[in-house]
Design a protein that fits this description.
Length: about 425
């Protein structure tokens, strides 16, 4: 795949997976059908590569992908959702594109570049929606005042978070002239996170920023970093702005709920009462179309009791796609924790740690807003996993070839 074709492929894959940031114009009509059609083409292109490689992250992604396919039939078996609604599951079946990507010679640099472009698009479109909040242009959430502001949870957050983690990583590994640019992008990213007033994400991003700069600093700089981030958090928590007031009020409400905290009740309901048979407790209930009887039940549960599957993370994954998909995610998490990364790719770890920290109380694991960014991150991890296997294929152990192998390692690192 040539350089230009690679960029076009990645750009289209991300745009289709994000459904053009869930633009309202893409939610109906020809554009919606084109997006689903393109998604199906990407999936079919990837199927021949499903079992071509082994090791690394192959098995857990196979478990997740195959579980999603099986769950289509479980939705029909358990809830009578017709197979004609299988198209609802197509955006989640883009997991299969992982197998296509790892079999193509796509450099890490190209993936980074395209992610950064989409991160920039996200920033521009979010600010547009934020300043034009009288009309909903992106997503499905009604724009209402919440937690002190017009709350806009903008679709496509995965590429945005990945891009700002790339930005902070580049602050510490690039030349001085470029540091200010990357630092500016990281700062703008932090502002956007705060404007979305999600406590969990504000805390996670601040933590990732602090960890990154702390781990890449000397002793004096570390002290300065601790003071800086502590001061920022203190002044924000004690300021009189509407966002801080809204976040504090929400925190008080959740704390006062105790055992009656709505997310705990929702998790208990979906684990103990929702799934009607043993088969679905193993293989999942399947993803729902809101117009089917199965979908109407999910909607009714949310409206009557306030129980949302999107609020219970890993429980949602298990309920919809079954125990094998859940095992797939847990295997990925366990591998990530013990995977050593080069300094210039630390952003991969920040993204995956974010996914782990939010996996209990969000739908990030299966959300189409995060799916493609997770696939790209795992593609890079798989590429790094396979690299030592390539380096072992030396024909001779002579001093000359040993020196060459070290040089090859540097070349591979640069090419990646």
């Amino acid at each position: 795949m040539g350089k230009r074709h690679t960029y076009i492929f990645l750009f289209l894959l991300i745009a289709v997976s994000l459904k053009i940031f869930d633009a309202t114009i893409a939610q109906t009509g020809i554009l919606k059908n084109l997006i689903y059609g393109a998604s199906l083409i990407f999936i079919l292109m990837s199927l021949p590569f499903l079992f071509k490689k082994k090791g690394g992250f192959i098995l857990p992604v196979q478990l997740i992908s195959i579980s999603i396919v099986i769950s289509i039939f479980m939705a029909q078996y358990t809830w009578g959702q017709p197979l004609s609604y299988a198209g609802t599951t197509i955006p989640y079946l883009l997991w299969f594109t992982f197998f296509y990507l790892i079999n193509q010679n796509i450099s890490i640099q190209k993936i980074e570049n395209v992610v950064l472009v989409f991160g920039a698009l996200y920033t521009v479109l979010f600010l547009f929606q934020y300043t034009h909040n009288g009309v909903l242009y992106f997503g499905f959430r009604e724009l209402v005042e919440d937690r002190g502001v017009i709350r806009i949870i903008f679709p496509g957050g995965g590429v945005f978070f990945l891009s700002i983690f790339i930005a902070i990583n580049k602050v510490t590994v690039t030349k001085k002239k470029a540091k200010f640019l990357w630092l500016s992008l990281a700062a703008i990213g932090m502002v956007i996170v705060v404007l979305q007033v999600t406590r969990q994400m504000i805390a996670v991003v601040v933590l990732m920023y602090a960890i990154h700069f702390f781990r890449n600093a000397n002793a004096i700089q570390k002290l300065g970093i601790v003071i800086f981030f502590s001061s920022i958090c203190y002044f924000f928590a004690n300021s009189d702005n509407p966002i801080t007031k809204g976040l504090k009020e929400q925190q008080k409400q959740d704390a006062s709920a105790g055992k009656d905290y709505i997310r705990l009740l929702a998790a208990e309901y979906f684990l103990k009462e929702f799934t009607p048979n043993i088969a679905s407790k193993v293989l999942g209930n399947g993803y729902y179309n809101e117009t089917s009887e199965y979908g109407k039940k999910i909607v009714a549960v949310s409206e009557l009791y306030g129980f949302f599957l999107s609020d219970v993370g890993l429980v949602e994954t298990y309920v919809l796609f079954g125990i094998f998909a859940l095992f797939g995610y847990l295997i990925i998490f366990s591998k990530i924790l013990f995977f050593k990364l080069p300094r210039h790719l630390q952003y991969l770890q920040y993204y995956m740690v974010m996914m782990i920290l939010t996996s209990v109380t969000s739908d990030f694991l299966i959300s189409t807003s995060y799916l493609i960014s997770t696939i790209l991150v795992l593609t890079i991890y798989q590429k790094l996993f396979e690299k030592p296997l390539h380096l072992q294929q030396t024909k001779s152990k002579s001093p000359h070839n040993v020196r060459n192998s070290k040089a090859d390692q540097k070349v591979l690192l640069l090419q990646s």
